[in-house]
Amino acid sequence: MHTRRLGRTGLMVSEVGLGALEIGRDWGIAAHDRRKPRAEQAIQVLERAVELGINLIDSARAYVLSEQRIGQALASGRIRREQIILATKAGEQFDEKRGSVYDYSYRAILHSLDESLELMNTPYVDLLQIHSAPLQAVRSGEVLRAMQEARAAGRCRFVGASFDDEQACREAIASGDYDTIQITYNLLEREGAERLIAAAARADVGVLVKQPLALGLLSSKAVHAPVRERERVEPYLFLEREGQTLAEGALRFVLSNPGVHSVLCGSKRLEHLESNARAGDGKGLAAAELERIVASEV
Q1: Which of 59, 98, 172, 263 lies at a C-alpha separation of 20 to 30 Å from 15?
Q2: Could you tell me the CA-to-CA distances from 185 to 40, 48, 170, 256 in Å, in that order?
Q3: How confident is the model at residue 298, as a pLDDT?
């Protein structure tokens, strides 16, 4: 597993990180495969991820049981705190009956962090991020003040944000206050993300990529997607060849961008985890493959 420097944080993160959503919350394209794994299965995923050289684990309070299971793995000694770079997100809570509730107030951010630290059985996280940061949260200063206080108290080492809004991300980079950004970037969503990655590189801001497989569409799970969605994937099926799955090819595409530092892959199955980890071997895609992708319509 190769590592890359996460911008000005100086943290050396594995090219493939573990997005911890699926180990704690029901999620998935296929109706029969949305159930979160049992606690023991989740801990096995965490343990195997570390064995494969994955050192970045990205969770959130909104991932329901995810942080509790990370805490169980740490408390049992099956993974050790010094082996991992631990990231969480605050600002969103999720209830499996009511759905997501967002609160970007000063008090809510600090309370969320308190809960995360207790659940994960750790005195600090390496990275505290705003979850799905809207423009108003970036501009208000209230969230940033809470995170900066947490950093000053030693409860987090660096601060960042996860974004769905390009303008919010652009302003966060320009502010100089955020050490990292987390954005969607994949074969099907490229242009806006590549602008943000370039801006982050100029500012030495770390870049984490979420949804690199387009919520499973760029993987074997695509068979469960609507026909129209599957048709969007067809131009990239050439990446599936001997020795490489479509998912591995899609991850290698993201990692072929030198401005990306780690690609976050969610998995609740060991075989998917191991396949994803193979993309972090530092090889990327061949030049001819990249040219073919660039030439295709998005």
Answers
A1: 172
A2: 31, 25, 15, 12
A3: 47
CA dist 298 and 296 (Å) reads 6
> In the prediction, which pLDDT does 172 show?
97
**What does the domain layout of the chain look like in residue ranges?**
3-295
pLDDT at res. 243: 80
Distance of CA 68 to CAs 82, 108, 159, 213, 246, Å? 18, 19, 22, 26, 32
Residue 28 has a pLDDT of: 65
Return the H-helix or E-strand segment holding 158.
strand 156-162
Nearest partner of 134 among 156, 176, 103, judged by Cα: 103
Architecture of domain 3-295: Alpha-Beta Barrel (3.20)
Angle between helices 166-175 and 191-203 (to 10 degrees): 10
Regarding beta strands 125-130 and 85-90, do their DSSP bridges make them parallel or antiparallel, or are they unpaired? Answer: parallel
In terms of Cα–Cα distance, which of 181, 185, 225, 232 is closest to 203? 181
Question: Could you say which residues of the chain have pLDDT below 70?
Answer: 28-33, 222-224, 297-298
Residues 165/148/210/54 CA torsion (nearest 10 deg)? 170
Q: Are 253 and 218 in contact (CB under 8 A)?
A: no
Give the rounded distance of the alpha carbon of 291 from its chain centre.
26
